[in-house]
């Protein structure tokens, strides 16, 4: 076994072409390969990072954005520790779809899942969604918010490291109420998801 | 002045002179040297002069050599120039020959091509054109310029060019014609001609278009016959999958058949171009088939219905809409997996073909990568792939629904056959899940497999496990419950609507079965993971690392369902523990409290003969366990016995700590613990040693022959046990052995502490010291009251108290004649009592000192014995330590009648010990000893005693000569403490002696206990 203390599953979702694969590639391989083509089904990457001298293994599931892969991607929500919802700041339609994505997350994911909203492609000149609109949306839905550029490598490292740190904190102080207080959406129904899926500790 | 200056000058000149003289000497030496060398140098010069002519000769010869070499190089330069021009000439000749042969060929071709065309021998014509095309066109032009007969050659070229375009037109036309006429031979014939005319791409395009149309026709036919397949046909359910199969098989056959043709006439590496064209038809046909399929099977309607159902069931509880029977979907799902698998296979086929072709035909790595890339693009962008994804999506939706609904059904139809430990839902559920996963494997798509595994995981964790947990939550109704509990259980069962009231037996069974189901399910999950992995490895043998990682992650999710199930089992076992085990076991074990643990030998044998506590307990446990043994799975039964063992041992420990034991009681306990451990070991498959560790250790301690043997077990030496008991607990256990034998002091330690005479801290410190003290004659524990007495006698000086305790036990051990067997019934004591008066003065002095008074009654020396007298004197002191402890003790001894004969009866050693004890080991302050009516013999005696007593003690012994007046005596001891005879206010000494006897009798029990406690220390 490799020597890591925590294993977290991170799942990226969002419309096709918002740059999910590029974010993952940038983080895991330091590449920005243009002209990728659409992801088929789900892709799977692993990167081990260090948080406070502890090795944390991030299992990153990069899902296809296209509608016809929905039944594949949905099945990964349940075991996710963190969900990154990505949109393209230069494309209004990708932002407009966010409520649909949230509904899906609500339906399939654990209610303890850490949720992050990411506005990608800030390197582009033709921004359509101002940062404060994204931020406001995230706040309203009780999510973290971050703007990134996979192309310029802006905030990509920060995004994943932040997630690793948060999940570790969460794993340590199991189930304490998270982030800020105005969580009206959480805890609506009792969870049937077992705790056992959370962090596989290895000795 | 001047004189001195002069002298100075003179001195300096003289110095200068000396210097010059020295220089002169050196120069002379040098000149001599040179003269010596002159001869040698001249010789050398002569030698050189002789050499000069020789050198001249050499110079000449060298000059000659240089000239020769120059000549040679010049001539060789010439030769190489000749060779070079020769080469050039030959090249030109070759070129010329080629040109000539080209020209000849050109001539022949231009002549032949026309006839060939006229003869319709297109192969020959094309061969001519091919020859022409393979000529270097620019070279031809140059040749034309060089030559005179330009016109004829140009004509030939023109003819050939014309012929080429003519041929192209003809071949293309003929090919089309042949296609239209479906003339296979001609098609093939002209297909072969295309590359000769330099029309590779056109050839492939034309040919493949033809093939494409052929495929289209066949596909059309197949689809039509599929649509017309009667519903009664065996293959009707998979007719679309069959149609797809035919389509792909046809395509594959075409590819396989034409590939060698293309390779032979067009060269390798051209397969991609061919297949791209065919792919278009494949896309069109696949789409058509799927369209028809979707229409016939009403796929969209079904999917929509399923989506609606899932939305409704998640949002509200009423789902009155008609559900689709999962069984009805079975056939459809099979068909989808088949279709998907066919597509998958065909894609793999194309992939393999093109890769092979590229490997053979394209040597350049870069070009090959380009081909791979465009192949991937071709596949990825094809409608075929799109269709495949859509099919997979449909499949996943349907399969998910099928799995959920079927499992729900299996749970709903759960039934238990008599004699079974588990009910039908476990087998059914895992059968369904296995079937679904297997079916997903048959799609050939790893993503699809992963999704179904994820879904299986969800269904097992939430739907399935929750049902089990729910059943366990209803509890195990126990017949031993008290009424209110039973009522609650009943209430809740009725509310749940699952149980009929009053049939607790049934609900017990439901509980047990749920527990067994959970246990069985963990095994099933493990087996499922293993099998699935094996099957996938078989079905998809060439997984790359990334795919493997994906699969393993999903499978690990599935196997972690066992954690969930183990939680449920744990929960259930805890339920059993609190409702079925604890309430029963406690009263059984509590019986222990009613047993006597202070046994005499007779009682011991009686106990062993009769039915012992542990036999009853074991019998009860046996009955309890046997009611579970057959109904629980073996691992659940093991868990139950573990819980039971923990419960029994804990409870037993508790009741042991509430009891007290003597040696034989401890012996019995040890036996009982052993047989209990033996019984439980025999009933289970795991080791109980650990669970019994504490209990065994407690029994061992209580079973010690002597309490001090604990040192053999305690500590860090060899043979020391690993203790499960803390030192405090151990002390508590030891105390159980001693508790009943407490010394009666008629005061308690806490009273004295309350009075402020000593502190609890001091008592505790001494107790701690006792526990770790290694002197074997000092007991591990001493009663608090005795400790208090030691502290008081030492003015709370802890170190002094420790010393005193040591001396106390040491002397008592060494002098059994003085300290043991203090029963007044003993003859020697009775005799001593007759010979002497032993009086406990009932009144204390103003300093709260106690007084004892001893005098001779019978002066007959033969009746005097030393040791009993000493013994009695100490016994007198013990009568004083009853109730309020005195501050000190004063001895008043009347020596009247003490004679030389008495002296002979004394022995030095006991006297020595007596006084050491008195001064250093007494749990009371030794204040003074007053010896009245001294005489010569006493003085002698004291002289001897002085030798081994220290000054301190000697000072406390005071001797008074006979004739001491009563007033003088009263100054030493107050009158209220003296008998009448000595002028005191008390009764006469005989009366006092009688009363003392009574006091001594009252203390007999005390001595008995004291002796036993002291002797529990092994020496």
TrEMBL record, chain A:
UniProt topology in membrane: Lipid-anchor
Keyword line: Cytoplasm, Cytoplasmic vesicle, Golgi apparatus, GTP-binding, Hydrolase, Lipoprotein, Lysosome, Magnesium, Membrane, Metal-binding, Methylation, Nucleotide-binding, Prenylation
SMART domains: RAB, RAN, RAS, RHO
SUPFAM superfamilies, sorted: P-loop containing nucleoside triphosphate hydrolases
Pfam families in UniProt: Ras
Superkingdom per UniProt: Eukaryota
NCBIfam families: small_GTP
Name used for this protein in its record: Ras-related protein Rab-30
Automatic annotation (TrEMBL), chain B:
Name of the featured protein: Conserved oligomeric Golgi complex subunit 4
Coiled-coil boundaries: 3-37
SMART domains: Cog4 (SM00762), SEC14 (SM00516)
GO biological process, one term: retrograde vesicle-mediated transport, Golgi to endoplasmic reticulum
Membrane topology: Peripheral membrane protein
Keywords: Coiled coil, Golgi apparatus, Membrane, Protein transport, Transport
Organism: Phyllotreta striolata
UniProt entry tagged with the keyword Cell wall biogenesis/degradation: no
Domain COG4 transport protein middle alpha-helical bundle, first and last residues per copy: 160-473
Cellular localisation: Golgi apparatus membrane
Predominant localisation class: Golgi
């Amino acid at each position: 076994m490799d020597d890591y203390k925590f294993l977290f599953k991170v799942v990226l979702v969002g419309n096709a072409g918002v740059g999910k694969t590029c974010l993952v590639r940038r983080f895991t391989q330091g590449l920005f390969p243009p002209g990728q083509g659409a992801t088929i089904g789900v892709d799977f990457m692993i990167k081990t990072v260090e948080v406070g001298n502890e090795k944390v293994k991030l299992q990153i599931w990069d899902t296809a954005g296209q509608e016809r892969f929905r039944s594949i991607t949905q099945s990964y929500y349940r075991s996710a520790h963190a969900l990154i919802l990505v949109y393209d700041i230069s494309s209004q339609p990708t932002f407009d779809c966010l409520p649909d994505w949230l509904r899906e997350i609500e339906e399939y994911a654990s209610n303890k899942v850490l949720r992050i909203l990411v506005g990608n492609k800030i390197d582009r000149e033709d921004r359509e969604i101002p940062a404060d609109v994204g931020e406001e949306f995230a706040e309203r839905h009780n999510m973290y918010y971050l703007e990134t550029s996979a192309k310029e490598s802006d905030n990509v490292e920060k995004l994943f490291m932040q997630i690793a740190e948060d999940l570790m904190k969460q794993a340590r102080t199991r189930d304490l109420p998270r982030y800020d207080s105005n969580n009206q959406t959480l805890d609506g129904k009792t969870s049937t998801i077992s705790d056992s899926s959370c962090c596989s500790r290895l000795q | 002045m001047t004189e001195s200056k002069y002298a100075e000058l003179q001195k300096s000149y003289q110095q200068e002179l000396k210097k010059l003289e020295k220089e002169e000497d050196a120069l002379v030496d040098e000149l001599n040297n040179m003269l010596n060398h002159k001869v040698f140098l001249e010789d050398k010069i002569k030698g050189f002069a002789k050499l000069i002519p020789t050198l001249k000769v050499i110079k000449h010869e060298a000059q000659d050599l240089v000239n020769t070499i120059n000549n040679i190089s010049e001539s060789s330069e010439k030769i190489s120039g000749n060779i070079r021009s020769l080469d050039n000439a030959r090249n030109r000749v070759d070129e010329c020959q080629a040109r000539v042969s080209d020209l000849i060929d050109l001539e022949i071709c231009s002549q032949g091509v026309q006839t060939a065309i006229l003869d319709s021998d297109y192969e020959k014509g094309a061969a001519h054109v091919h020859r022409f095309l393979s000529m270097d066109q620019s070279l031809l032009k140059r040749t034309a310029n060089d030559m005179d007969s330009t016109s004829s050659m140009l004509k030939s070229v023109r003819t050939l060019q014309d012929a080429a375009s003519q041929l192209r037109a003809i071949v293309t036309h003929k090919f089309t014609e042949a296609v239209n006429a479906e003339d296979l031979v001609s098609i093939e014939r002209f297909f072969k001609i295309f590359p000769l005319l330099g029309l590779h791409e056109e050839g492939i395009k034309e040919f493949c278009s033809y093939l494409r149309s052929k495929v289209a026709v066949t596909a059309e036919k197949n689809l039509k016959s599929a649509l017309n397949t009667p519903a009664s046909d065996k293959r009707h359910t998979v007719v679309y999958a069959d149609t797809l199969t035919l389509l792909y098989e046809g395509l594959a056959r075409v590819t396989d058949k034409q590939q060698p043709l293309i390779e032979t006439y067009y060269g390798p590496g051209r397969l991609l171009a061919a297949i791209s064209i065919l792919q278009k038809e494949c896309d069109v046909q696949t789409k058509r088939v799927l369209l028809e399929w979707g229409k016939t099977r009403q796929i969209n309607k079904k999917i929509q219905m399923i989506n609606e159902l899932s939305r409704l069931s998640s949002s509200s509880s009423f789902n009155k809409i008609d559900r689709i029977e999962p069984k009805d979907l079975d056939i459809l799902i099979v068909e989808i997996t088949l279709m998907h698998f066919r597509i998958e296979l065909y894609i793999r086929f194309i992939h393999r073909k093109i890769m092979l072709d590229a490997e053979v035909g394209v040597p350049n790595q870069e070009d090959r990568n380009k081909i791979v890339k465009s192949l991937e693009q071709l596949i990825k962008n094809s409608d075929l792939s799109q269709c495949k994804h859509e099919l997979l999506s449909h499949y996943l939706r349907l399969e998910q629904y099928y799995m959920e609904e079927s499992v729900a059904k299996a749970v709903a139809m759960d039934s238990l056959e008599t004699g079974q430990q588990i009910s039908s839902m476990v087998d059914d559920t895992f059968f369904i899940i296995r079937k679904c996963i297997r079916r997903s494997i048959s799609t050939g798509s790893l993503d699809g497999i992963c999704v179904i595994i994820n879904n299986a995981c969800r269904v097992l964790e939430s739907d399935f496990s929750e049902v089990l947990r729910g059943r366990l939550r209803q509890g195990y109704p126990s017949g031993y419950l008290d009424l209110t509990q039973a009522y609650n259980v009943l209430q809740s069962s009725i509310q749940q609507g699952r149980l009929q009231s009053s049939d607790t037996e049934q609900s017990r069974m439901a509980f047990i079965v749920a527990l067994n189901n959970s246990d069985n399910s963990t095994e099933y999950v493990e087996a499922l993971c293993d099998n699935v992995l094996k099957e996938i490895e078989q079905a998809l043998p060439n997984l790359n690392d990334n795919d493997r990682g994906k699969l393993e992650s999903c499978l690990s999710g599935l196997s972690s369902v066992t954690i969930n199930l183990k939680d449920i089992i744990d929960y259930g076992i805890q339920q059993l523990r609190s409702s079925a085990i604890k309430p029963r076991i406690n009263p059984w074990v509590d019986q222990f409290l009613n047993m006597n643990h202070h046994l005499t030998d007779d009682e011991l044998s009686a106990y062993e003969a009769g039915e012992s506590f542990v036999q009853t307990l074991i019998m009860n446990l046996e009955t309890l366990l046997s009611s579970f043994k057959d109904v629980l799975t073996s691992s659940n039964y093991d868990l139950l016995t573990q819980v039971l063992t923990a419960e029994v041992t804990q409870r037993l420990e508790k009741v042991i700590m509430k009891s007290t034991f003597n040696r034989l009681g401890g012996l019995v306990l040890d036996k009982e613990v052993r047989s209990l451990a033996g019984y439980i070991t025999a009933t289970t498959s795991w080791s109980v040693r650990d669970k019994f560790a504490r209990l065994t250790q407690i029994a061992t301690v209580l079973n010690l022959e002597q309490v001090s043997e604990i040192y053999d077990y305690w500590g860090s030496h060899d043979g020391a046990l690993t203790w499960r008991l803390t030192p405090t607990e151990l002390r508590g256990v030891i105390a159980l052995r001693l508790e009943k034998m407490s010394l009666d002091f008629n005061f308690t330690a806490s009273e004295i502490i309350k009075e402020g005479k000593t502190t609890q801290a001091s008592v505790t410190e001494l107790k701690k010291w006792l526990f770790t003290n290694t002197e074997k004659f000092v007991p591990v524990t001493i009663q608090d009251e005795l400790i208090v007495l030691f502290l008081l006698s030492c003015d709370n000086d802890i170190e002094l108290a420790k010393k005193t305790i040591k001396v106390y036990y040491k002397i008592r051990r060494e002098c059994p004649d003085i300290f043991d067997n203090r029963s007044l019934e003993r003859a020697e004591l009775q005799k001593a009592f007759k010979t002497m008066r032993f009086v406990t003065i009932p009144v204390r002095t103003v300093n709260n000192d106690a007084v004892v008074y001893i005098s001779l009654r019978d002066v007959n020396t033969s009746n005097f014995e030393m040791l009993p007298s000493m013994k009695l004197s100490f016994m007198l002191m013990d009568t004083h330590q009853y109730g309020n402890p005195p501050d000190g003790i004063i001895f008043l001894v009347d020596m009247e009648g003490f004679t030389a004969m008495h002296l002979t009866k004394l022995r030095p050693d006991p006297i020595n010990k007596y006084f050491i004890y008195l001064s250093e080991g007494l749990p009371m302050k030794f204040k003074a000893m007053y010896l009245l009516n001294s005489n010569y013999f006493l003085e002698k005696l004291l002289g001897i005693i002085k030798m081994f007593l220290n000054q301190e003690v000697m000072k406390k012994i005071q001797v008074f000569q006979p004739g001491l007046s009563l007033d003088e005596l009263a100054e030493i001891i107050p009158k209220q403490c003296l008998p009448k005879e000595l002028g005191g206010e008390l009764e006469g000494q005989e009366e006092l002696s009688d009363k003392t006897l009574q006091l001594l009798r009252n203390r007999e029990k005390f001595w008995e206990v004291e002796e036993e406690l002291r002797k529990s220390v092994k020496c």
